[in-house]
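We emphasize that the prediction below concerns an isolated chain of 295 residues; any contacts that depend on oligomerization or on bound cofactors are therefore not represented. The input was used exactly as deposited, without trimming of termini.
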Amino acid sequence: MKPTKGQRIFAVFNYILLTLLALLCLLPMLNIVALSFSSRNMVNAGAVTFLPKEFTISSYLYMLQKSGLIPALLVTVKRLVLGVVLNLIMTISVAYPLSKSEKLFKSRKFYVAFFLITMIFNGGIIPTYLVIKQFHMLDTIWALILPNSVTMFYVLLMLNFFRGIPDEIEEAAVVDGAGWLTILLKIYLPLSLPSLATVTLFIIVGHWNEWFDGMIYNNHTDNYPLMTFLQYHVLNFKTSDLRPEQIAANPALADLEGRSIKSAGIVLCTLPVLVFYPFLQKYFVTGITVGSVKG
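Result of the prediction step, given as a token string:
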């Protein structure tokens, strides 16, 4: 069908609006990237907008040479591997039984209410800290993983996807003698790749960006994850902290500026997620919207 005049005007309006929204998101990112590659004089003069001025990589060299960066990165990688695996196992273990009807799982309403309460209320920072301390998890990787191993939002995504799978498939598997675990592993999970990819992306971004728990649950900076390390050491950088002997040993340090350091930190923190995101993006829309429409 040929679009009407009103539809064409509406389409043009949509393109203009979406372009403006894209620019609102993209331009601040370009400014941060430009600041990270610009010299100290240009940054202090406010001459940097969306392109670097007096190009330099001194901010990145300073960060990569920072002692403790590699150990912090290793802590974050360890956190990601353990956290993603544990979160997925816990999320699937909760979502699968809750996706069943009350005929199969008679206590379903009670557990749904129990988990939904956690979306509204939590114990607070101090009680959570005391619990972690009592379990002797301070200064361990488990303090960064276990407290948020079950997130109800992820459970709801998986639950809705599981409920969208036709019951006839499960009934046929039961007739063939398959048990609940076999049905989950060989039927539900292979059919749930979009939802699994979406939840995995959320978990990765959540663990990668989290910095506050690393600061309050670790007494030693050697145990900091990458985001906590950057917040503590890099984002609080001051040019006045550099000693003359440091600048003499590495003249590039003389070109450092606090905003350039912070911008470089933001770029390095964001880049891995941006690289990883396209591989899961094709599953994202399907995973987030599945179960939203019921026929």
